[in-house]
Amino acid sequence: MLTGRPETLFPSWGMASFFVPESTVVDHFEKEGIYVDPIIRVERVSFHYGESEERIPVLYDVDFELAQGEAVAIVGHNGSGKSTFAKLLNGLLLPSSGEVWVSGTNTKNVQARERLRSAVGIVFQHPDNQLVETIVEDDIAFGPENIGVPQDEIRRRVDEALEVVGMMAFRERPPHRLSGGQKQRIAIAGVLAMQPSCIVFDESTSMLDTDGRREVMEVIQQLRNQGVAIVSVTHHMEEVVHFDRVIVFQEGRIVRECTPRQLFTNHEQLAAYYLEPPEMHRIAVGVHRHEELFRSDRLTVSEVVDEFEHVVRWQQRKEALSS
Amino acid sequence: MSLSEFAVQVEQLSHTYMKGTPFQQEALHDVYFHAKPGECVAIIGHTGSGKSTLIQHLNGLLLPQTGQVNVLGLELSESNRCALPEIRRQVVVLFQQPEDQLFEKYVADDIAYGPLQYGLPKKEVIQRVKHAMDFVGLPFETMRNRPIYALSGGQKRKVALAGLLALDPQVIVLDEPTAGLDPTSRQELLYKIKRLSRDEGRTIIFVTHSMEEVSLLADREYVLAGGSNVADGTTREIFANRELIHRYRIGTPQSVELVHTLIVNGYDMNSSTFGVEETVAEVRKLLRQEVG
To answer: What is the pTM of this model?
Structure first.
């Protein structure tokens, strides 16, 4: 399941998946021999809460791999097991059966716990639950201080993290006075100061307004440019369109793994997963139904605007030629 | 006090936190707000807009420092504190992240807590819990003995809502009711809230960031910023006001974003267009014009 990988290593290839059949891309990629070990490998993992009679199964036989620098969105119903899955990725939860490996280390390895949590950071749903200090920069320094990073190194990391999330101007403010989006950016900076190779976002935008969501998505884009791998559990289909790969959970199982465009353009399947395409895609499909020229597979506002202007130009040229 | 035509009526309400200290901060300034019986009204605003302070006035968690709050014909004020128990029975507030407020071990116990506190007979309580659970989409038979910790975030939200519905209130105030829910649960919940107002005639007041929700649900909306009213009207009136949307960074549906982008790019479009069908029709019309 390496579908998303080429796009990640070459971000400028954003459009590659429409023009080149995916299998071709992967073949080419593997021939080049750039195969890298996955950061995270999940092998036949099942998970249940509680014991014996009260046992409540949540995940069944889940397999998953995350490559370096890759960005994967995870979608599914409330209760489909996505959040549980996210917490398995750095050993916050341990599998009931099966194995989770982070850069070759099993999450069951107690001695490696500190290293695992640094390698894979999690940003949760409620920013208030993960901000601990009364001043922004102290909050970001909290993690590195706890694992004994030297002071000047901490200072460097804090600066760098604040820069990435665009919150430098707020470094001496108390975090609880910030907006939701700003708080989440501080939480991300705190995770970033641990220098993780992967950050897991567990519905981190779901309590935010449109503005806050946009802020966090921009930071995610920044992180990708720096080569940090991303796993994002989300309900917002407008966000999913920006990821390399999307995984659909249903009743504790992975039922689909593909690119966002493949997911959203297969309407029958989408309905079976109880997912709705982003509003923009529904508009593109609606226009296409009447104007065949207009491509139906558009997903974002800017794609639809471009397509609209493209069709206008095309028709005007045709008009000019025929008159 | 004469009976008003409104279920909820707020006039010239101001509120200052920590009044008389160096930290005093005015959260509401001369705010008005009306909701008729059975109406569904949205309150929109960012962090610090005063919307949370406003809704805390609706069931007397805060009492007016200046201005009037009238709910179901009862005045809420310091001098009328004896009306508060009645008001809190009729007006319920679902706060943000209500799942954090669940405290019983099992689902049905948590929902039954309110009605039991009001001393309702056991049979009646069971009836109400059953009805409330069915209404929010938690099957009574399979879910009543489910431990709360094993529920997903969306299921916990449903439990919290059911707990309020079991009180059989006339006015329901919801603070960000669908934040954190998946698209299907969100749709389902919105549809249920709509039923509460359309079919059962309850007055719904909800705070939201999402204009998508507003367009689906609300009859009217109020926009607050910096503790004051900045606009109110129907969804269409608000969407058409591009200046307002930009100025107060109101998050619009993608369709509105598309329409506004095309207008900025110089195309002649009806600015009050929103929703998939209208937008498709408008884009097609435009395509024909541009060629035409």
So the answer is: 0.75
